[in-house]
Amino acid sequence: MKTEFANRNETRVEPQGGWSRRQFIQISSAVAGGATVLGTGAAAIGVPTGQHAPDPQVGGIKILRSACMMCNAGCGIQVKVQNGIAIKIDGNPYCPQSNEYASAGKDVVESDLAPTALGTLCARGQAGLKTLYDPLRLQHPLKRMGQRGAGQWQTISWDQAIAEICYGGQLPEGPFEGLAAIRSTAPISAAESKYMDEAPSTGFGPRSNQLVMVSGRNQNSDLTKRFMDAFGSINHLDHTSICNAAYKTGGYHTFTNPKKAKGTYNFKPILENATYVVLFGTNPVEANVPTNTFGRLVASMVKNGGKIVVVDPRFSNTAAKAHRWVPIKPGYEGAFAFGMMRWLIDNGKIDVDFLTRPHEDAAKKVINGKQHYSWSDATYLIDTAKHVRLDSAQAGVLWANLTMAAGKAETVLTVTSTAGFPSKGTLKIGSELITYTGKTDTTFTGLGRGASGTTAADAALDAQISIPWMVISGGQAVPYNTVDQADLEFVGKVNNIDCETSFSMLADEVSLKTVDEYETLCGLEVGTIATVSSEFASAKAPVADMYRGAQSTTNGYYNCRAIFLLNGLMGNVDRIGGFAMGPRFNGAEPARPVTTSTSGVKLDRGKTKYAGTKPKPTRQWYPIAEVGITQEILPSAKIGYPYAIKALMTFTHNSAQTIPFPQSQVAALVDTKAIPLHICSTIFMDETAALADYVLPDGMYLEKWASPMAGYPTIHTKASTIRRPVVGTFDPITKHYIPAFPDTMLFDDVLIRIAVELGLPNFGLNGAGAGKDIFTAWQYYNLFFSGGDYTQGLDEKADYMRMGGKRQNPAEIADPANPAFALNRYGDRVDIFYEKAAASKNALTGKYFSGVPIFEEPGIAMDGTKLVPPAGYDLTLITFKRGWHTQSRTSSNEWLAEIERANRLWINSVDAKARGITNGDRVRVSTPAHTTGEVGRAYVTEEIRPGVVGVSAHFGRREAGSKQHMADGQPMPHNANIGGGLSANHLMWPEPAFPDLCLTDAASGMAAFLSPSVKVEKL
Q1: What is the Cα–Cα distance from 379 to 806, expressed in whole angstroms?
Q2: What is the share, in percent, of the chain residues with pLDDT greater than 70?
Q3: Cα distances (angstroms) measured from residue 691 to each of 962, 965, 1002
Q4: Please, which residues bridge with residue 860 across strands?
């Protein structure tokens, strides 16, 4: 059947067995088949009146509250369920992401809102019903029958799938080993690795590491990690380097959180009170998390007189709300931030009072009418030759020696004398930092070993103990915690050692170029940076934020560090209207009766220093990245680096589509010698599932439990939303759950079944302790929730289950005791200098990373090569997101496709005219690595910078139901319309030295979603 669309130049081919939105209720009723619905027997939460809020007196409709996952924000939702069928999704009014309100007390209770209260929800969230009941969903386990990618499958039972996964079986190429045979504590040897000379002295770890699990936004990482730890594999890997690696790593290295020995990055502006916000490469009205909330807050801020500056090559919907749009050259956001810092420093507009307070007690003191809750390392002295922080022994000021040999777990240190040391603080012994809370004449007590992210270590008799950080005060070098304020700038010698303060090092970098020169680099008119800086400095509550556009480049790490430090220089961390955190209520992983551990080197080398005997490694290692390097996993597996793998499990992760330059990912996935067994859990036949050996049909988010969803730091009060199934059947005796499509199975249950079958510890009978079994997902999550802030577990009678989560009063953002500051605070150190980065090398170039942000051009390969595009490839390609799609996974949702079925190439009229292109023309976009290119329609506009073209990142699907597959000799449902539009990822460049890897930031491991150059031709 073909349907013609009025006023559209397109024809839609209806899927086999497909249905329109008007047929939805009839089809979904047939799917449910009258089964007993989850929650039957519990009190009804409420029923709706028409399209309005729950009314317990009308209808037979239940309202079940859960968490959305149509994007990654996890907004609270309430689902109307009638006779077991989900018929409508609305926003949960109790969720502050969906509704602004004030509670009567400190914590939200059900009576805080009237029964008629409503919450907002975006188009994506409301379209979740189409994904739930989509006829293209996989409904049975499948086993590959032909070559990978040939689309030939056999329907099998769950028992067969799990048995063969565990114990091996037969594929078209021959027999394969199951997980039971792969699990081994024997070390990986030369038989499994051609690169033993690149292994650290301890080797690559056990053979169990040859099982690799890669997941995306799974929201069950506690369970998957428990499984992989029990199996004995270190390769529990994730998607973060295609998400926010530069943002996260830059945040961890700026907000190092030494009090908790764990950095953080979860900061967002308090838009409710901000008066001037500079947004670098982010479009929160459409694409930040949660957009549902961000959009409302942006609109409210502007309405109340606040000003927004959008620094972005494209005029986005956020720019439409802005006071100023700055059409910057892609990848130069760090240069703009450096220009702002240069102007702020030169004009004396930084917060010197904040920057000169070197420790917590000093920060909290009221000095000249000012106080703070966080503090800075700006005054700390750096040994400029060694690029390490100067300690008190190096300064020749203060030290002691151990009078005992100290083990790494020692809780008391006995020394020659504690004279001169403060009563509490931080010590340095070797490379370890140790906090202490008390002392006697010869002992330090109350020790916190391995502080500030260091590793606890053994120390010998006479080992030296010192204060780790020194500052200048009154012209003298003194321990940081002996003065309330220290000198911000110093360049000179201390104990004959050349030193600078952290701030002086940053100022030196910033001063390498003038503000005008930074503007030239950014491709902006003279005066732009100065104007924005002046407005920023004079605003009552200024704040800077960034995301995808600023971080998804080869220089993303330094871009993010610079932008984060704009907030540090202004002292606006924790301030109302400034940069603040958003904590959450949480659960806790159930106890592990059997201690499990993993060892060795992860396949992607994320967070790992190269320590082989070979001078230069075959591939890059990423010592300062705070995440795994997703794009490295499959190309590394293809060449067996650093060792061969035997089995790959992918879950909510579609590397064959979502990673830049996915061509190389596909090349690895089709190689059955490199990846002998590929098990994929998914809800659709996506591009990665199409290249699997076993495809296990998962439940979708309306059929799952998950760890409590954070509100993201956009919500600055403590809050979390619960995800729980709203359809399907649940046996209250066995705790077994069956999704709406009865032959699908939650991946959580699949893993638990495999674990029990293999006899893995910490699963099955007494898996979490005596009387605490883990045979089902419900049992696991009931223990997870009850072990944390949700003490009644998954009891349907619990208040938080009825409200869909736990929340503090959403209106109480400020601290009642000190309204100038946020109630929920970071309250820790902001670092300009990050020592680990300064002490670590790029393994390919041998050059050290910088401890302070530096300006770095975009388009620099990991081996230091400057990318020079061939003639004709003269336009820079950027990607962006729209408010009605999420990455590429929602392009198969027919309801959302009614808003936008295919993307277009945004091109400025100047560039279009030069190529003879008019609006709507068919064009080809190509790169030197993808010469056949991507074909689509042109959108000629002034809303994108000349020299730049843009493509939304949601389209150009190769699979996801767009191609015909066969199961048991019969055609599976498909819809050719799903494949419409251009695939931006296929147009990304590979690394020059590694043509199987997309361009990557060597520091953070961030994959680059910015193509240095493309060719655009009219067809």
Answers
A1: 41
A2: 94
A3: 15, 12, 29
A4: 866
Helix axes 777-786, 221-231, angle to 10 degrees: 110
How far is it, in rounded angstroms, from Cα 384 to Cα 493?
10
Among residues 884, 717, 891, which one has the least CA distance to residue 291? Answer: 884
Summarised one tens digit per residue, pLDDT across range 939-993 is: 999 999 999 999 999 999 999 989 999 999 999 999 988 878 999 999 999 999 9
Distance CA 706, CA 699 (A): 12
Task: Report the C-alpha gap between 433 and 480 in whole angstroms.
Answer: 14
Give me the sheet containing 324-326, strands edge to edge.
Answer: 324-326, 307-311, 276-280, 542-546
Beta strands in 230-295 (DSSP E): 236-237, 267-269, 276-280
Element (H, E) at 215: strand 211-215
What does the alpha-carbon distance between residue 889 and residue 340 come to, in Å, rounded to a whole number? 38
- The per-residue b/e assignment along 821-858, b for 16 or more CB within 10 angstroms, e otherwise, is bbbbbbbbbbbbbbbbbbbbebbbeeeebbbbbbbbeb
| Mode of pairing for the β-strands spanning 276-280 and 307-311 | parallel
With CA atoms as reference, report the closest residue to 713 among 567, 813, 795.
813
Q: Which residue in this structure is represented by tokens 């001037």?
A: 276
Of 774, 799, 787, 776, whose CA–CA distance to 705 is shortest? 776
Contacts of 366 (CB under 8 A, 6+ apart): none
* pLDDT score for 711: 64
Nearest CA to 709 out of 106, 9, 231, 70 is that of 70
Does residue 613 sit in helix, strand or coil? coil
262 contacts 249 by C-beta, under 8 angstroms = no
Residues 917, 889: Cα–Cα separation, whole Å:
30
DSSP string, 939-964: EEESSB-TTEEEEETT---S-TTSS-
Residue written as tokens 């759950």?
A: 737
| Per-residue exposure over 588-621, b if at least 16 CB sit within 10 Å of its own CB, e if not | ebbeeeeeeebebbbbbbbbbebebeeeebebbb
Q: Structure tokens of 396?
A: 């020749």
Q: Do 254 and 640 contact (CB within 8 A), yes or no?
A: no
- Please tell me the distance from the alpha carbon of residue 432 to that of residue 428, in angstroms, as a whole number: 6
- Of 897, 875, 878, give the one whose Cα is nearest residue 955: 897
Helices (DSSP H) in 805-863: which residue ranges?
835-838
Q: DSSP secondary structure string, 413-440?
A: EEBS--TTS-SSEEEEETTEEEEESEE-
Give the pLDDT confidence score for residue 469 in this predicted structure: 97
Transcribe 551-570 into DSSP letters.
HSSTTHHHHHHHHHHHHHHT
Q: pLDDT of 657-689, one tens digit each?
A: 999 999 999 999 999 999 999 999 999 999 999
The three-state secondary structure class of 756 is: helix
For 995, other C-beta atoms within 10 Å of its C-beta total 13
3-state secondary structure of 925: strand
Mean pLDDT of the 1001-1017 span:
95
Residue 52 has pLDDT above 50, yes or no: no
Q: How far is CA 494 from the centre of its chain?
A: 42
> What does the pLDDT look like over 116-160, one tens digit per residue?
898 999 999 999 999 999 999 999 999 999 999 999 999 999 999
Question: Cβ contacts of residue 459 below 8 Å, gap of 6+?
Answer: 402, 405, 406, 429, 430, 432
Name the DSSP letter for residue 14: P
Strand partners for 939: 906
Tell me if 334 sits within 8 A of 246, measured CB to CB. Answer: no
Residue for token pair 């048991």: 968
Q: Measured at the alpha carbon of residue 179, what is the angle toward residues 174 and 180, in degrees to the nearest 5?
A: 110
